[in-house]
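Study this fold:
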Amino acid sequence: MSFIKKFPEMNNNVYERPDHSAWLQTIREQDELCDVTIKVRNKKIRAHKLVLAATINYFHRMFLGNFEERMKDVISIDNFDEEIMEAIVTFSYTGKIAFTKENAADLLKAADFFELTDVKDNCMKFLKYNLETKNVFAILHLAKLVPGCTSLLERSKTFIRRNFREVSLTDGYRNIDIELLESILSRKVPPIYNSEIIFEVIMRWISTDVDSKMTHLSELLRHVSLFDLSSQFLISFLFEDEFRDSVGPKHREIVAEVLSVFNELKLNNDSKNTTTDETNSLDLYNMPGTSLVKFSSIIDTDIEFRNNATHCIKTRFHSITAMNEYMSKSFEELRFEDYNAGRNEG
């Protein structure tokens, strides 16, 4: 029996020329034996039909099928810009392609168009790894447009759930549709934030276009455990100047809708004889608002020193919170209680 000696610099005695693929690219760059020109807007990219057909399914069908481009020397492709097309052609020669945050979205669309499954899969991996609050909605929209990107779509949704408050502060959040928002809120795994944050991001979405989104408020609020919200939180949020300014004339209608949904949930809760944590639940039914005593201004006496003499002066307070019955509450708390009781006029 004879033994074949293996050379250490060879892999199973197979010699592999270093940088072999780079030689093909060099021939293309020097425009040697090129037989096709790909015209992309204002740029002309020279290449070899054989190489393109051997490495890219799109060109394989074009040059070997019954298409008129088979006999043409110039092929026009206007779907992508010059840089993306150059990257695709270079990949057919070198087998290498570089993903960046700037080109990944366009490369994903190009890989799908040219049927480069491996490039498409790796591009999706790159996008998943580089999801950020500022780009997640753009990537999610991209995943919905490009076929076969289900995993990227789900990863984007998961990222949004896990960073719900942060992404709700971005411009992209303003434009998401109700179906997407519903799907994010209804998914219980992974768990998203507490009731206060969910309530906050729902109201922020409503405030971006109150006229068209107001109709969805009731359904969206059902994703919030309203019994977990304290009256202090609701009053602070609903009556803060920033929120009131963002919703404008619709403010009263929004507050009334929030209270209506809560009241309905409480009635359903009572009918099922379930209990809630009294220390944390929103006790709207023990909030008298300004109904205890009719408002009347308060007159008080103050002392003033003037011209080396002491003078007693009368001061009249035209504020309901100066009355003994209401001095423990703020204007916002009293207004909230009145809204709940239906006293929202004047």
Remarks:
- The chain has 18 helices and five strands.
- Residues 98-169 form one domain.
